[in-house]
Specification:
- This protein is of the alpha/beta class.
- It has 2 domains: 183 residues, 3-Layer(aba) Sandwich (Rossmann fold); 156 residues, 3-Layer(aba) Sandwich (Rossmann fold), CATH 3.40.50.1260.
- The protein is 33% helix and 16% strand.
- The chain has 14 helices and 15 strands.
- The chain has a 6-stranded parallel β-sheet with strand order 3-4-2-1-5-6. Strands 9-8-7-13-14-15 form a 6-stranded parallel β-sheet, sandwiched between helices. A 3-stranded antiparallel β-sheet has the order 11-10-12.
- Helix 1 crosses helix 2 and helix 10 runs parallel beside helix 11.
- The longest helix is centred in the N-terminal third of the chain and has 15 residues.
- The chain is elongated, with a radius of gyration of 23 Å.
- The structure holds adenosine monophosphate.
- The site of adenosine monophosphate has 16 residues, from strand 12.
Length: 399
């Protein structure tokens, strides 16, 4: 069913517009924001609403305060950063609702914005509680969801709230996410190549199953590759393996063959004698991983092979690092793949926090077509699921 976007919505002038954003940004020990991509991503929607003369009431979660008011998780630093980005003061509310918040809202003029406190200060948020959602809605006339990264959660500020506000719409960040996803998965220009990495097969099983029905090639790196390599009969030493999934891994490879999906695994790797940044390490083929050693990155031949798979690609989706890229000694494979994705003559879509930071560290973030702001939400879309936060925006009987 269709979704209405904020610029297709009714006149916003003078209206109280609640915008759910995802300002769940990383901070250092002193509360300094270390990465503001999510705030930057929501600016176009907020700016649009302000320019239309809306009274903008922003809601977000931050961290895991577990239903309690903990000052460590205040939205204040994000609100300050947003004010800088907008060039306009956004006031920080002391709570999500209550007399003080009501007074702040009552004194708002068109074109002004306030930020509510962390919605996860209340247990009702994660319980999708109707009463909490009603209080949060607080008489707003329009609700806009621009928080893609949390839209796979049926939480009150994402789902239940849509039942308490008459006009509902999605923001521009949400539109970008859905548009690029559609481009990649529903209407891909082929060949469509999916690169999957990260720690475990178990976390990406459903994604793999769905992808096999849609893609032309699958490239597997990271820790998850070693369950497949073991399933092929190789000894993989102390590399990460999920023994209980070996049969499943075999089935996946069979399915790929039956469907004519090219299935690529690493041909070489960097093995280490310990899971440590300073561990002794060397390059070897996947056939010759020594007993007691663990593979922590793909090797240079695999990086070349994987880059080769992208040569004719027209659409590329990448989720998950090729190795333990947090340690310099095991980051080269991920960066090489980032380079290859950045240089591909294709629509390239990156999803997941690790992959996002790898692409930025490799300096190719401006060369890819789209970096999704969602980790879990992106994976759930790849699994073919309908996100509860998106479903709640579908126009049913609403005008
Ligand atoms: P995921 O959240 O499943 O995408 O996994 C990301 C994590 O996988 C990163 O923290 C990597 O360090 C880790 N990872 C990637 N390759 C390996 C590997 N070969 N062995 C162990 N961990 C890995």
């Amino acid at each position: 069913m269709p979704i209405r976007y904020i610029d297709e919505s009714k006149d916003l002038k003078g209206k109280k517009v609640c915008i759910r954003v995802d300002f769940n940004i990383p901070q250092d020990d002193k509360g300094n924001i270390t990465e503001d991509t999510r705030i930057v991503g929501a600016v176009p929607t907020i700016k649009y609403a302000l320019d239309q003369g809306a009274k903008v009431i922003l809601a977000s979660h931050l961290g895991r305060p577990k239903g309690e008011k903990k000052s460590k998780y205040t939205m204040a630093p994000a609100t300050r950063r947003l004010s800088e980005l907008l060039g306009k003061k956004v006031k920080q509310a002391p709570d999500c609702f209550g007399p003080e918040v009501d007074a702040m809202i009552a004194s708002m003029k068109p074109g002004e914005a306030i930020m509510l406190e962390n919605v996860r200060f209340y247990p009702g948020e994660e319980k999708n509680d109707a009463e909490f959602a009603r209080k949060l809605a607080n008489g707003c006339e329009v609700y806009v969801n621009d928080a893609f990264a949390v839209s796979h959660r049926a939480h009150a500020s994402v789902e239940a709230i849509t039942k308490h506000i008459p006009v509902i719409a999605a923001g521009f960040l949400m539109r970008n996410e859905m548009t690029f996803f559609d481009k990649a998965m529903r209407n891909p220009v082929r060949p469509l190549v999916a690169i999957l990495g990260g720690a475990k097969v178990s976390g990406k099983l459903e994604v793999l199953e769905t992808l096999l029905n849609r893609v032309d090639k699958v490239v597997i790196g990271g820790g998850m590759a070693f369950t497949f390599l073991k399933a092929m009969g190789y000894s993989v030493g102390k590399s990460l393996v999920e023994d209980e999934l070996i049969l499943t891994a075999k089935k996946i490879m069979d399915k790929a063959k039956k469907r004519g999906v090219m299935f690529y695994l690493p041909v070489d790797c960097i093995v280490a004698n310990a899971f440590e940044a300073t561990a002794t390490n060397f390059i070897t083929t996947v056939q010759e991983i020594p007993e007691g050693w663990m593979a922590l990155d793909i090797g240079p031949a695999s990086a070349t092979l994987f880059a080769e798979t992208l040569r004719d690609a027209k659409t590329v989706i990448w989720n998950g690092p090729m190795g333990v890229f947090e340690m310099d000694a095991f980051a080269r494979g991920t960066f090489a793949v980032a380079e290859a994705v950045g240089s591909a003559f294709a629509t390239t879509i990156i999803g997941g926090g690790d992959t996002d930071s790898a692409v930025r560290k490799a300096g190719v973030d401006t060369k890819v077509s789209y970096i999704s702001t969602g980790g879990g939400a992106f994976l759930e879309l790849l699994e073919g699921k309908i996100l509860p936060g998106v479903k709640a925006l579908e126009i049913k009987t609403r005008k």
